[in-house]
Specification:
Layout (H helix, E strand, L loop, with lengths): L4 E6 L3 E7 L6 E8 L6 H12 L6 E6 L7 E3 L6 E3 H8 L3 E6 H8 L8 E3 L11 E6 L3 E9 L2 E4 L14 H14 L10 H14 L12 H10 L3 H25 L5 E4 L8 H5 L2 H6 L5 H5 L3 E4 L5 H9 L7
Parallel strand pairs: 1-4, 4-7, 9-12, 12-13
Antiparallel strand pairs: 1-2, 2-3, 5-6, 8-13, 9-10, 10-11
Helix pairs in contact: 3-11, 4-5, 5-7, 6-7
């Protein structure tokens, strides 16, 4: 039986693809295609197959950055929209599995090697305990793994859209500006690439600057300026970002009882280098009042893999029955 498979990890900015000859085989021909360069996921898939000269495989699995609650998928941070069954028929797959991208990443966590991780505080992970996952990129992804007997159950939620809580006077002022702009302020409004720009504008408003949101630098420029130490506002923005990310990750650890560790994915934090370890992240992760000692023992693992682990998680999803 043909068990070749096309794997995809689709975010709001880039779609990453890989080919797998069979279950458990190494990933081959990993490619990254910009979402903006293709009219649809189908078009991007066809472009990948043409570029790599692979035939249409029997199986395909996609981790995609939005809820997957039925046949119709509409991306939250990009315009792609499609029917899963129509896409399967159009490409000719025997089976197509579509899951949330952070659910796919969660499925990959047990497969990660030591060289793909960097621990940021905490002690050893407790074997068999729940695991948390959060990561900032074009949006904010949240998932986790719960132990069920001898296997792991991945979570398919939208925790990136919980309300953003202010814990300092400055954060309260920044949230007030964000609320004026957005109405409701979710964690993703601050903890994402667009969120870095929103924080830059909001902080400027708090400091009396007369700027529009469009005047804010791109996220990559904010990070670069903060790392170079030449721009005070960008440094403050990065501190706000890392502090809030720590608070959200700590809340997730408490919610799941994630004594197996909290993993940090996404495209932003791995680029921060040593600046992340010097940031308020870990202090805010642990700053939970009476439960500070509980959180102090929980390890945080930064995912630094050069190849998208969510592709491995998508492959793992093909070994699970639909609906699991």
């Amino acid at each position: 039986m043909d068990s070749t498979r096309l794997l995809a990890d689709v975010g709001g900015t880039n779609a990453r693809f890989a080919w797998q000859a069979a279950a458990g085989a190494p990933l081959q021909d990993v490619r990254t295609l910009p979402c903006a360069g293709h009219d649809s996921l189908e078009a991007a898939m066809r472009a990948y197959l043409a570029e790599t000269a692979h035939p249409v495989p029997a199986l395909a699995a996609v981790g995609i950055a939005n809820p997957v609650t039925g046949d119709r998928v509409q991306m939250t941070n990009h315009h792609w929209s499609f029917s899963i069954e129509a896409l399967r028929q159009a490409l000719g797959f025997e089976r197509l599995r579509v899951i949330n991208d952070f659910t796919a990443l969660a499925l990959a966590l047990p497969q990660l090697s030591a060289h793909e991780l960097r621990q940021v505080g905490g002690g050893p992970a407790q074997p068999g305990a729940p695991i948390g996952l959060v990561g900032a990129g074009t949006g904010l992804g949240v998932s986790g793994l719960l132990p069920v007997g001898s296997r792991w159950l991945p979570l398919a939620g939208e925790g990136g859209h919980v309300s953003l809580a202010a814990e300092t006077p400055l954060e309260a002022e920044v949230v007030a500006v964000l609320r004026e702009r957005y109405g409701r302020v979710s964690a993703e409004r601050a903890l994402s690439g667009p969120g870095l720009r929103a924080l830059h504008h909001a902080l400027g408003r708090v400091q009396g600057q007369r700027e529009t949101p469009e005047d804010a630098p791109e996220a990559a420029a904010i990070v670069e300026a903060a790392q170079s130490g030449g721009d005070t506002r960008c440094t403050q923005v990065l501190d706000l970002f890392c502090g809030w990310l720590g608070a959200v990750a700590g809340d997730l650890a408490l919610t799941l009882g994630a004594r197996g560790g909290v993993f940090i994915g996404g495209g932003i934090v791995p680029r921060l280098g040593a600046a992340f370890e010097r940031s308020p992240f870990r202090a805010r992760f642990e700053a939970k009042g009476r439960f500070a000692s509980y959180l102090r023992e929980i390890p945080v693992q930064l995912i630094v893999s050069t190849t998208s682990p969510a592709l491995r998680g998508a492959a793992e999803a093909l070994e699970m029955p639909d609906g699991a």
